[in-house]
Design a protein that fits this description.
This protein has about 220 residues and is mostly beta strands. It has one domain (about 5-220). The protein has helices at about 5-15, 200-220, and strands at about 35-40, 70-75, 85-90, 95-100, 105-110, 120-130, 140-145, 150-160, 165-170, 180-185, 185-200. Strands 1, 3, 4, 6, 8, 9 and 11 form a 7-stranded antiparallel beta sheet that branches. The model is unreliable at about 1-10, about 10-20 and about 205-220 (pLDDT under 50).
Length: about 220
């Protein structure tokens, strides 16, 4: 592919809908007791930024989506030595709404009120180095509650103009009222996608499996 064709391809790809960087959703997305929020930073607000959409899945039938009240970005703190927010991508792609971080983003995600034993958090970060020659990476700190496992790297995909989407996950041993975490690094950030799942206890999983088997029999 020549440079002109590659540029056209990149521009077309990155001008797609805002959730285009939802590259690797978790396999449990849209199960009961999951949430999904994403931010693409279309303006320069810094405090109490609600998710762009969609809202989390409801507890049960009729599975109405909507926002849990406290889900939001509670602070973005760029380093004063860097510009804070770019309407267009300083690296030259067709991306819009870019934070030159060099500080941190604090995120709070509200939960469904389940007493289940495990909670999984799955985060996709679309980012690029502010200094192309540097070694900056996204880092997660101030995670509350502290995870029993992770954050661990899952996978990543490299887009155009040195942008990439990197996926992380971690696990909690209980379902708290909410999760908080801080994303930091000397990086540009274009999009953040957060999935969570309050994993049903084994008895509930067994019932779900039995229900699926019964459905298969009826279809046969």
């Amino acid at each position: 592919m020549n440079k002109f064709a590659l540029a056209v391809f990149c521009a077309g790809l990155l001008a797609a809908p805002a959730l285009a960087d939802d590259w690797l959703p978790p396999p449990w997305r849209n199960e009961v007791s999951t949430t999904l929020q994403w931010w693409h930073f279309g303006d320069s607000r810094q405090l109490d930024i609600p998710p762009d959409e969609p809202g989390p899945l409801d507890e049960g039938p009729p599975y109405v989506t909507g926002y849990l009240p406290s889900t939001k970005i509670i602070e973005i703190f760029p380093d004063p030595t860097h510009p804070e927010w770019f309407e267009t991508d300083p690296l030259g792609s067709a991306r819009q709404g870019i934070w030159a971080l060099s500080g941190w983003i604090d995120v709070i995600v509200d939960n469904h009120n389940h007493p289940n034993d495990e909670k999984w958090i799955w985060v996709q970060v679309t980012w690029a180095k502010i200094d192309p020659a540097g070694t900056a990476q996204p880092a997660f700190v101030n995670i509350s509650p502290s995870p029993s496992e992770g954050p661990t790297f899952v996978d990543e995909y490299v887009w155009c103009a040195n942008w990439q989407t990197t996926v992380y996950e971690w696990k909690l041993d209980w379902n708290p009222p909410d999760e908080l975490f801080r994303l930091q690094g000397d990086i540009f950030v274009d999009q953040l996608v957060v999935d969570t799942w309050c994993l049903p206890e084994p008895a509930t999983l067994s019932l779900l499996a039995l229900g699926a088997m019964a459905l298969i029999r009826r279809r046969k």
